[in-house]
Amino acid sequence: MAHPTVSRRDFLKVSSTAGAGLMIGVFLPAKKRLVEAGLVSGQPFEPNAFLAINPDNTVTVTVMKSEMGQQVRTSLPMIIADELDADWSQVKIAQADAHPDKYGSQGTGGSGSIRRSFQKLRKAGAAAREMLIEAGANEWNVDKSDCTVSNGKVVHSSTGRQFTFGELTKKAANLPVPEDPPLKNPKDFKFIGKSMPGLDTPSRVDGSAQFGMDVQLPDMLYATVIRCPTFGGRVKSFDAHEAKKINDVTDIFAIEGGIAVVGTNTWAVVKGQRTADIKWDHGKFAKWDSSRIRNMMQKKGLGNAVVAREEGNVAKAQKDADNVLEAVYEVPFTSHATMEPMNCVAHVNNGKCEIWVPTQAPQRVQTTAAEALGIPEEKVTVHVTMLGGGFGRRLFADYVIDAVEISKKTGKPVLMLWTREEDMAHDFYRPTSIHKLSSAMTKKNRATSWSHRIIAPSISAQRSPETFSKGELDRSAVNGASNVPYEIPNIHVDYVMTNTQVPVGWWRSVYNSQNAFANEGFIDEMAHAAGTDPYKFRLKLLKNSPRYLGVLKLAAEKAGWGKKLEKGRGRGIAVHKAFGSWAAQVAEVTVNRDGNFSVDRIVSAIDCGLAVHPDGVRMQMESAIVFGLTSTLKGEITIKDGAVVQSNFHEFELLRIDEMPKVETYIVESNEAPGGAGEPGVPPVAPAMTNAIFDATGIRIRKLPIRPEDLRV
Amino acid sequence: MATYTLTVNGNKHRVNVEDDMPLLWVLRDEIGLTGTKFGCGRGLCGTCTIHLDGEPTRSCMTPVEYADGSEITTIEGLSNDVSHPLQQAWIDEEVPQCGYCQSGQIMTAAALLKRIPDPSDDDIDVAMKMNLCRCGTYQRIRKAIHKAAKGI
């Protein structure tokens, strides 16, 4: 999405409230004025930040992004504290409530928390630093050029006199805010580029971190919801009689999403859920299952497609070719399966609503609740708790509607919790997809064409069908495919939309996970068809793409690419760029004759520009690899009778510690602008794995998840 | 419905609840100790692990009637000041990401170290493989357990 250029219009705003000292934020111009000026459409802005320097010498950084394990509550404060020259021990964090425009977009996704706020947070810190220097200079009646800041103190260089930030904050608050404060030379960074200890880590090892379902309010009721298992189905009738007999169940009633069971503890409502006698109108989708969906996709895939990229003439290249290589890749639906199931605490009272929720989209929660209740947005307060995993699932606010409806009906604060079974049956799944690829090759083993057809449901079209009513291209669905980086003269990439009733959503790395599997599996096939080492084959086709080359070479070198492996073992490589970062991985596997195999090691290289919090980047690479491996080896969601088959972790398995390969992460040294870290590590995992299996066995896997029976020799 | 007596982290609690209420919900909804988490409700993920008379136990599957008179330790009772060697090792190695499963991971690991003070990688696999982590912190969990073992 293009953002308006507003850098010259950015301004810093300062306010002084009694006793609070200096509070400073980087504000973009008020949304309304920009909209009136025709500069923006009213879409959310880039993020910005807010910081307060308190008279007790603490610095409060308000984090506007949601913490779901990616360490934003450490890395965002690091950026501000660095430019401010604060002492790390001064830094306190506060979590921002939802606000329509105070912080810009609070949506936490697209691996964007750092890369979309880096400069603005630096500016916020730098402006406060300049004001503190000026306040100190004024107090001493000296020139501010003779004053410096370090470790939370303003120092008069010639005399060594000093003030703490806390001592200066009230004075500084009355000064004009510098419009364009000087930023540090990156070589002077003190926190940026260092791995600071996680500010939240202690609270995550003693049970004190507060997740959504840990919120407890006086007089609070507990609730759970039963939805129609079939997508598109509805409640026909229900008999609450038996469920109401359960002790501590106080009510059971229909809501928009299904049936709500309410009680005075969680166990009562879980029992009520199991007892409730509900008749469903399953609707038309009840006739669908996974194979019917696949047949429909294959059939539609033969028809019309929308072009996403066209260069040269693929048809001619294929006609002139000595050999045309073709392959079909397939990826199933899969679930987010956050460890903390969907939940939300809501208190609807007197025309107002207060919400506590683990969400990646606080502002969407606010507007969704306001709409569901028919009250103005400003009457809805949204507190963001810690998130027990997000991965894209918590960008949706469907479960919030359940909570506010139940609270409205009961008039009490309510903790609405989905059971694991509801969570798994009512996710927004990573879209299933089919990929048809072909490449024209010459006798000299040169690739002269590349074509890729993506056949998949569209997340965007499911959310806003009117935008795609004329078959417009869903750009997101071809992300990672239309921008295939290989230098091949004739390229054709197109897309066929195949929507069903199965809800689809943003799943860590979105369509990049499917598209990279297809791209990087197929380029490997091309290399082998050409009789060339797949690593060297890539290097040749990427010779003008230095950042791709950088990660490929780093991963290959650290993995010992080219060194011989014993029989039964194999090595595979893959590279992909997404969310502003380049990632390459080398997987090493051992395959037994019975088809069972182990993943021995994954060597991972990432170029995310300047790594603000290097250990945070390593954590995200380790996490992305486990996430990617889970969906490569297990984690398939299938459909039967219009509903999800898998109900809990015995059917939807996650990778376990005894299956964990050794993961090594190497970060490319860089001073380029920061890129994303949360998602870029996911896409290369699946193709690196299937390429390694090919290396070990000669068996080419084109369909996920990999099954041992596919590998039996 | 009956009254049960439980000693949780050294404190005696009397709760009047349904006989089949799992300890997880007794701890969370009745006693207000929310450090023990709900993940699956079927003993499949390990997120709700506590110690029941010293044994690592899935609290989501353990009805309160089986625990009457028992001693229970939850994550809140592992130490008063984050000083348990596992908690320290978890901090040093920056193990937690979202942190949601970590109470269960640490309680399972604490039971392991009581049994096997210096576990091998295989010992760790056997003890920990029923504890799921969607953030994928396994490599650091392994390292932190080894580190804590050296400190005990």
What's the β-strand tally of chain A? 28
- Walk across the major sheet of chain B and give the strand order: 2-1-5-3-4
Determine the number of helices of chain A (DSSP H or I, runs of at least 4 residues).
17
Radius of gyration of chain B: 15 Å
DSSP summary: helix tally of chain B: 5
Instruction: State the end-to-end CA separation of chain A.
Output: 49 Å
Strand order of the largest sheet of chain A: 11-12-9-19-16-17-18
What would you note in describing this structure?
- The complex is a heterodimer of chains A (713) and B (152).
- Chain A is of the alpha+beta class.
- Chain A is built from 17 helices and 28 strands.
- In chain A, the strands form seven sheets. In chain A, strands 11-12-9-19-16-17-18 form a seven-stranded mixed beta sheet.
- In chain A, helix 9 (362-373) packs across helix 10 (398-410) and helix 13 (512-529) packs across helix 14.
- Residues 1-20 and 25-48 of chain A have low confidence and may be disordered.
- Chain B has a five-stranded mixed beta sheet, sandwiched between helices.
- Chain B folds into two domains: 2-78, Beta-grasp domain (Ubiquitin-like (UB roll), Roll); 85-151, Orthogonal Bundle (DNA polymerase, domain 1).
- In chain B, a hairpin with a 2-residue loop joins strand 3 (49-52) and strand 4.
- Helices cover 34% and strands 16% of the residues of chain B.
- The model of chain B has no long low-confidence stretch (mean pLDDT 97).
- Classes of the chains: A alpha+beta (713), B alpha+beta (152).
- At the A-B interface, helix 6 and helix 16 of A face helix 1, helix 2, helix 3, helix 4 and helix 5 of B.
Which helices and strands, and how do they pair?
The complex is a heterodimer of chains A (713) and B (152).
Chain A: E1 11-17, E2 21-27, H1 31-36, E3 50-53, E4 59-63, H2 72-84, E5 91-95, H3 118-140, E6 147-150, E7 153-156, E8 162-164, H4 165-173, E9 221-226, E10 234-239, H5 241-244, E11 249-255, E12 258-263, H6 266-275, E13 277-281, H7 290-300, E14 306-311, H8 314-320, E15 323-331, E16 343-349, E17 352-357, H9 362-373, E18 380-384, H10 398-410, E19 414-417, H11 420-425, E20 433-441, E21 449-456, H12 459-463, E22 490-497, H13 512-529, H14 534-541, H15 546-559, E23 569-578, E24 581-591, E25 597-607, H16 614-633, E26 639-640, E27 643-644, E28 662-667, H17 685-697
Parallel strand pairs in A: 4-5, 9-19, 17-18, 21-22, 25-28
Antiparallel strand pairs in A: 1-2, 2-3, 3-4, 6-7, 7-8, 9-12, 10-13, 11-12, 14-22, 15-20, 16-17, 16-19, 20-21, 23-24, 24-25, 26-27
Chain B: E1 2-8, E2 11-17, H1 23-30, E3 49-52, E4 55-58, E5 71-73, H2 85-92, H3 102-115, H4 121-128, H5 138-151
Parallel strand pairs in B: 1-5
Antiparallel strand pairs in B: 1-2, 3-4, 3-5
